[in-house]
Amino acid sequence: MTTLAPTTLQGRLSSELGRLRDAGLYIRPRVLEAPQRARTRVAGREVVNLASNNYLGFADHPFLKERAERYLREWGAGAGAVRTIAGTLSIHEDFESQLAEFKHTGSALVLQSGFTTNQGVLGSLLQEGDLVVSDELNHASIIDGLRLAKATKRVFKHKDMQDLRRVLAENPTDGLRLVVTDGVFSMDGDIAPLDQIVAIAREYGAVTYVDDAHGSGVLGEQGRGTVHHFGFQHAEDVIQIGTLSKAWGVVGGYAAGPHDLRDLLINRARPFLFSTGHPPAVVGALSAAIELVQADPSFMERLWDNTRYFKAELQRLGFDTFGSETPITPVIFGEAEAAFEASRQLLERGVFAVGLGFPTVPRGLARIRNIVTAEHTRDDLDAALAAYQQVGRDMGVIGG
């Protein structure tokens, strides 16, 4: 009888890492050697930072840091327990009330991250016999969250309203029907047509679920998000989830919607039930961020002024920005090797912007994803544009 030797841990690690290297997918993260700002330091060099999601420049803002320090001193370093046992401090609930008021929803609940929020909400809402219809370009956290749900899953073509209607019509059910979409799509920077999505969902008795990770703090009055941008903030059949990183500069995720949604998640959402509550310093910084964006409209004004300028100049130089409508501004290079090489050359010229290839984006559409922020100055953007012009010409992507 032949006895097969089991795979060793080192063998599995080596083989998997080898596959990643062979496919050109091996990642070695760049390390920032200074705070997350419009200009930071990478590999010993000061660079214009176009790689972060720090839309409003809040990650190192003094107002947030002061509030975080005060909450740290008053409330301690950690929550000490999961929220449902002894880890809910009054500051947690105060912030959730503040967030619900900001979002114009009946309630809000904060979870550990945007990724776990999708897992927690989708897993709590969906049951066997339900139908969930998801945009084909939705974020990985939605895809993974749906894998855990027992509902019937269907996909509609990206922002294709005829296809959405077809999928809903072909999959009748007396269970809950849920249409799931990103508010702003993270790779292309386009905005979901929520006005049409909600209308079609209502025709079929479906609820609309919006992951607004890249819309919150960017779109809508005072940064209230994509749902507010389209006027659905008071709708009982629209659920908002999102992150508290990105525009808000800190960490966490949230779900905002009817009051009963919060109660269900407290009782059913596994990431909430089995993870310690946010540290007080995080809660303090988040509270300050929501206050600051409402008190000072210049953050969003600068964000959009910079966005319009940078996009227009890239297009004038001849780059393809793929129809982006938001501060997420892709520059298409085609194949992954070209995008990675362009990223390397940009870094040599003092611009930190990361190349993305398959499977993060489709084959043939490898790009550098740029995100301008409210903190960038015109000098920052002009320096980045000059570097792009030189790299684009050297690589034959734009004309000389």
Automatic annotation (TrEMBL):
<keyword id="KW-0012">Acyltransferase</keyword>
<feature type="domain" description="Aminotransferase class I/classII large">
    <location>
        <begin position="46"/>
        <end position="386"/>
    </location>
</feature>
<dbReference type="InterPro" id="IPR001917">
    <property type="entry name" value="Aminotrans_II_pyridoxalP_BS"/>
</dbReference>
<keyword id="KW-0663">Pyridoxal phosphate</keyword>
<keyword id="KW-0808">Transferase</keyword>
<dbReference type="InterPro" id="IPR015422">
    <property type="entry name" value="PyrdxlP-dep_Trfase_small"/>
</dbReference>
<dbReference type="InterPro" id="IPR004839">
    <property type="entry name" value="Aminotransferase_I/II_large"/>
</dbReference>
<dbReference type="GO" id="GO:0008890">
    <property type="term" value="F:glycine C-acetyltransferase activity"/>
</dbReference>
<dbReference type="InterPro" id="IPR050087">
    <property type="entry name" value="AON_synthase_class-II"/>
</dbReference>
<dbReference type="InterPro" id="IPR015421">
    <property type="entry name" value="PyrdxlP-dep_Trfase_major"/>
</dbReference>
<comment type="similarity">
    <text>Belongs to the class-II pyridoxal-phosphate-dependent aminotransferase family.</text>
</comment>
<dbReference type="InterPro" id="IPR015424">
    <property type="entry name" value="PyrdxlP-dep_Trfase"/>
</dbReference>
<comment type="subunit">
    <text>Homodimer.</text>
</comment>
<protein>
    <submittedName>
        <fullName>Glycine C-acetyltransferase</fullName>
        <ecNumber>2.3.1.29</ecNumber>
    </submittedName>
</protein>
<dbReference type="InterPro" id="IPR010962">
    <property type="entry name" value="AONS_Archaea/Firmicutes"/>
</dbReference>
<dbReference type="Pfam" id="PF00155">
    <property type="entry name" value="Aminotran_1_2"/>
</dbReference>
